[in-house]
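step: validate -> pass
step: tokenize input -> pass
step: predict -> running
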Amino acid sequence: MGRGSVAGELWDLGAFPGAVKPKRAGARVIGEVYRLRHAARALKKLDEYEGIRPQAPARSLYSREITEVIMEDGARLLAWIYWLNRVPPRLRRIESGDYLKR
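step: predict -> pass
step: emit ->
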């Protein structure tokens, strides 16, 4: 669908990023928004890929929630996001909020 942003902070986990809910006003995470043709099936596969453990959510690296996204054209919509459950110590915050520009 395009690029959008959510209120949050982005952390560099090395090979991949992790977004956390914002602790400071104005912090944004920038990313891509996709429309899923078969959402239930796709989300099940994505949950497996991201290591979501429904039976033990506190032990999962991420949790999946619906959040508001602001698209580049200003449109607002609701979409799923994978939030990092906890920020491991000694990680670097990506100030721009854009993993591609880290």
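step: describe -> The first strand starts at residue 2 and ends at 7.
step: cleanup -> pass
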